[in-house]
Amino acid sequence: MRRFILIAALLIVGALAALGWFRRDDIALSLLRRTADANIARNELTALPDGLHAAFCGTGSPMPDRQRAGPCLAVVAGQRLFVFDAGGGASETLTQMGLPPGAIERVFLTHFHSDHIDDLGALALQRWAGGGATTPMTVAGPPGVERVVAGFNEAYAIDATYRVGHHGADIVAPSGAGLIAAPFAFAEGTDRIVVLDDGGVTITAFVVDHGPVKPAVGYRIDYRGRSVVVSGDTVPTPSLDREAKGADLLVMEALSVRLVSELEAAAARAGRAKVAQIMEDIQNYHTTPADAAEIAQRAGAKALALTHVVPPLPSPVFDGLFLGDAKTKFAGPLWVMRDGDLVSLPAGGGMEKKRLLRR
Predict the structure, then answer these.
(1) Which of 42, 112, 210, 257 could form a disulfide with 216 if both were Cys (CB 3.0 to 4.6 A apart)?
(2) Which entry of 85, 115, 119, 233 is annotated as an active-site residue?
(3) 321: number of CA atoms within 13 Å, CB side?
(4) For this structure, is 119 an active site residue?
(5) What is the Cα–Cα distance from 359 to 97, expressed in whole angstroms?
(6) Residues near 148 by Cβ (< 8 Å), separated by ≥ 6?
(7) Phi, psi of 235 (to 5 degrees)
(8) Cα(158)–Cα(164) distance, integer angstroms
(9) Is the model's pLDDT at 120 over the cut of 80?
């Protein structure tokens, strides 16, 4: 609706300007000022009721998709902002949703596939230079997160000197640049660990199966009687059933074997044998929409949100084809998520899905 109003306003301005009633540039500048004031002052954290909120800042995959950033889920607990994975474009989407990167308390990684980590540098930069952070961005994950963090710190080290040199230490505090690793490990014989228990927020990591990718984990977030479970990339596994039990919202990755098989066949017809092989390979370490629905039903989850959508869907018209018979396997709400979606779980009960992305 906002987009329609803006387009209509611009058309009216253009018509009136053509008649010489006023200068088009003056009107354009006025619109720019209003937009800048609204966007810079916007902070959705202050508007959300107490409870848990899942903000989808990236619902895509490694496959090119102009409509979806790489995997990213922001979870708001009270006024605290946590981010799970940071795929390409996630920091931009997060900001456009009105969730300030400067408020990020911690980033949690599910695994180290490139599409889940490749916007960490941009996210840390926005948190620091755009958000005024005076400490590095904490990135938690299983063993190996130290190496990932060290690599991003090295890649952005020279850039950080430019920022401080240009703006000055009073504006961009050198102490806030970069990332710091917070590794966690599972005790022998266990597949779950509480990685944060503070101020009523509990975050539990659990092992999932994304082999040959190891380690790979999911997370359960609990706050004031509400819960969100993040699968990470995985095939169906008992640990996921266990952690999703009774969850208010289960956030699952999903791959349509039927549609990916069509891409495999297209690659083969084009003589691109290696691409065809990749399309075949990726089918065996992800969850299908139907599998996700069955997991949600077994666990008694209240709602199911599908993300990490493979393959890209050019329009919601394709959602039904993507889902297949998944909706027959789960009794609750089932959504194919898009960048900018928000699912709110107020502390007192209830659930609401809405859009935060203004485009």
Answers:
(1) 210
(2) 115
(3) 13
(4) no
(5) 10
(6) 109, 112, 117, 120, 139, 141, 181
(7) -90, 165
(8) 10
(9) yes
First vs last Cα of the chain: how many Å apart?
10
Q: Which residues contact 42 (CB under 8 A, 6 or more apart)?
A: 98
> Closest Cα partner for 213 from 358, 95, 115?
115
Of 121, 124, 128, 76, whose CA–CA distance to 97 is shortest? 76
Q: Which domains does the chain have, with CATH numbers?
A: 47-355 (3.60.15.10)
pTM of the model: 0.91
* Radius of gyration of the chain, Cα coordinates, nearest whole angstrom: 22
For the record, the structure tokens of 295 come out as 């997991």
> For residues 99 and 73, is the Cβ–Cβ distance under 8 A?
no
DSSP of 146-181: HHHHHHHHHHHHHHHHHHHHHH-TTTS-GGG-SEEE
Q: Could you count the other beta carbons within 10 Å of the beta carbon of residue 324?
A: 17
> How far is it, in rounded angstroms, from Cα 103 to Cα 56?
16
Asked if residue 39 has pLDDT above 90, the reply is no
Residue length of the chain:
359
